[in-house]
Amino acid sequence: MKPEKNQNSQTIILCGRGKCCPKITKEKTSKEEYITISDDYDGIVKLTIEEAKDLKKAISKLLD
Questions:
Q1: The whole model's pTM is what?
Q2: 2 and which of 13, 32, 46, 64 could share a cystine (Cβ 3.0–4.6 Å)?
């Protein structure tokens, strides 16, 4: 994993080897904070922080 950070966002590139890796970004606007997951095929999923927390719980259950 390779973290990147700027003023309004934090990004983690999951494989860290180049542009073909999925990215998870936490972004803040004046009105909201959200998570986006983007892949190398231009697919994007935008989640609220609560939805991202629910996703984390669901993934944890699958991996247990």
A1: 0.76
A2: 13
Q: Please give the structure tokens belonging to residue 30.
A: 């004046």
Amino acid making up residue 46: K
The token pair that represents 23 in the structure block: 């990215």
Contact 48, 30 (CB under 8 A): no
What is the predicted pLDDT for the residue at 20? 74
Beta bridge partners of 2: 13
**What CA–CA distance (Å, rounded) separates 19 from 63?**
27
Q: What is the domain range of residue 33?
A: 2-63
Structural domains counted in the chain = 1
* Average pLDDT in the chain: 88
